[in-house]
């Protein structure tokens, strides 16, 4: 079985700045996902193609497909699902990459080639084709069970940071991640003056597996950081990685040191809801929280690597405040500022 080496350390800001106890006001709302145009794009430049007017293409029915003509003469056709802006990375590069999804190439690992990440230097032109009747990315992943079937935290979790802010700096490993914390009914993340890990409401909270799968990677012995400090980029996170199907993997980071039980081991098959450990402050993080992302393993990259790709929670309740009233969502990709639970609140 493949062990996906995450190699995804989080930048200094992971978990958000240590702030005054003003709760919800710490979080902003944003979405880095670009739209898709409904007409030919043509020649691209160093800033990437113009990708406005996507919704008009989708409104005609079907999936708007991109056709990328590459410098080596090949063509890649697929649904555009994300753009990675390398200019924002904590090791910045003056370029960008596009992720295209081809449902016809969705296969069990190691034959899954459903995502093609194309760098700017590879692209001659990009055109957007007439909408296709093929299954779109999100529907295909739902059909294959590549979704998060529940929240990993009991009770109400707060999406402190979604697909924005410092997650876009994480070398492509965090673009579609969520950072989950716990608050009180006023939206405060900690008690007292928040001077220690123990005062944060997320600290020590049980974590359960959001979706069944085989464990591919575990780190359990990294120390927890004193509040407001971290040991530097590249330091180990306590984490659990689980195969969801194809080359898609769920990763949960920042567990408390030695809280992950021995039965959570590589090659073990775990059901959704299995206890994984407790929320800690290990790795590149400034305050206790749980980092959650779905990665697609790009075996064709040189060297092979993973990319954070869009994903969804299934059958969750969400609200703009910790007191609700919550709305039931069959599937949801909750943005920054959302409060979420697997039970009504």
Put the structure in a nutshell.
Helices cover 4% and strands 30% of the residues.
SSE diagram, text form:
Elements lengths: L41 E2 L10 H6 L5 E6 L4 E11 L10 E6 L13 E5 L3 E6 L8 H7 L13 E5 L16 E4 L24 E3 L4 E7 L19 E7 L2 E6 L15 E2 L4 E4 L11 E9 L6 E4 L4 E7 L7 E6 L6 E3 L4
Antiparallel strand pairs: 1-6, 2-3, 2-6, 3-4, 4-5, 7-8, 7-19, 8-15, 9-14, 10-11, 10-13, 11-12, 12-15, 15-16, 17-18, 17-19
Question: Can you give a write-up of this model?
Answer:
With 345 residues, the chain is mainly β. It has helices at residues 54-59, 137-143; strands spanning 42-43, 65-70, 75-85, 96-101, 115-119, 123-128, 157-161, 178-181, 206-208, 213-219, 239-245, 248-253, 269-270, 275-278, 290-298, 305-308, 313-319, 327-332, 339-341.
- The poorly predicted ranges are 1-60
Largest sheet: 11 strands, antiparallel
Q: Which structural category do the helix and sheet elements fall into?
A: mainly beta
Q: Any idea of the CATH topology of the largest domain?
A: Glucose Permease (Domain IIA)
Number of strands: 19
CATH superfamily of the largest domain: Glucose Permease (Domain IIA)
What count of structural domains? 2
Gross geometry? globular
CATH top level of the largest domain? Mainly Beta
Q: Write down the secondary-structure element order.
A: EHEEEEEHEEEEEEEEEEEEE
Q: Return the CATH architecture of the largest domain.
A: Distorted Sandwich
- Strand share of the residues? 25-35%
Number of helices: 2
Cα distance spanning the termini? 40 Å
Radius of gyration: 20 Å
Q: Classify the oligomer.
A: single chain
Mean pLDDT: 85
């Amino acid at each position: 079985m493949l062990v996906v080496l995450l190699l995804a350390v989080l930048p200094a800001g992971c978990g958000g700045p240590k702030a005054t106890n003003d709760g919800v006001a710490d979080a902003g709302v944003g979405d880095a996902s670009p739209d898709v145009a409904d007409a030919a794009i043509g020649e691209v430049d160093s800033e990437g193609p113009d990708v406005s007017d996507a919704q008009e293409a989708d409104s005609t029915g079907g999936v708007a497909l991109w056709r990328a003509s590459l410098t080596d003469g090949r063509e890649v056709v697929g649904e555009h699902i994300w753009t990675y802006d390398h200019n924002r990375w904590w090791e910045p590069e003056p370029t960008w990459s596009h992720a295209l999804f081809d449902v016809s190439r969705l296969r069990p690992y190691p034959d899954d080639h459903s995502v093609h990440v194309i760098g700017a230097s590879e692209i001659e032109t990009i055109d957007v084709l007439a909408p296709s009747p093929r299954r779109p990315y999100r529907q295909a992943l739902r059909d294959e069970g590549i979704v998060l079937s529940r929240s990993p935290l009991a009770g109400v979790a707060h999406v402190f940071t979604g697909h924005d802010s410092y997650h876009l700096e994480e070398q492509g490993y965090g673009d579609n991640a969520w950072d989950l914390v716990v608050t009180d009914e006023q939206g405060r993340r900690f008690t007292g003056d928040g001077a220690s890990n123990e005062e944060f409401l997320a600290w020590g909270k049980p974590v359960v597996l959001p979706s069944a799968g085989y464990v591919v990677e575990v780190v359990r012995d990294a120390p927890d950081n004193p509040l407001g400090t971290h040991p530097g980029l590249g330091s180990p996170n306590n984490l659990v990685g689980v195969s969801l199907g194809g080359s898609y993997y769920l990763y949960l980071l920042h567990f408390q040191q030695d809280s992950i039980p021995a039965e959570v081991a590589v090659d073990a098959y775990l059901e959704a809801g299995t206890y994984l450990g407790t929320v800690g402050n290990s790795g590149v993080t400034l305050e206790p929280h749980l980092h959650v992302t779905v990665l697609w393993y790009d075996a064709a990259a040189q060297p092979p690597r993973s990319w954070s790709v869009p994903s969804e929670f299934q059958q969750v309740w969400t609200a703009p405040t910790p007191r609700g009233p919550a709305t039931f969502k069959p599937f949801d990709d909750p943005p920054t500022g959302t409060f979420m639970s697997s039970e009504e609140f």
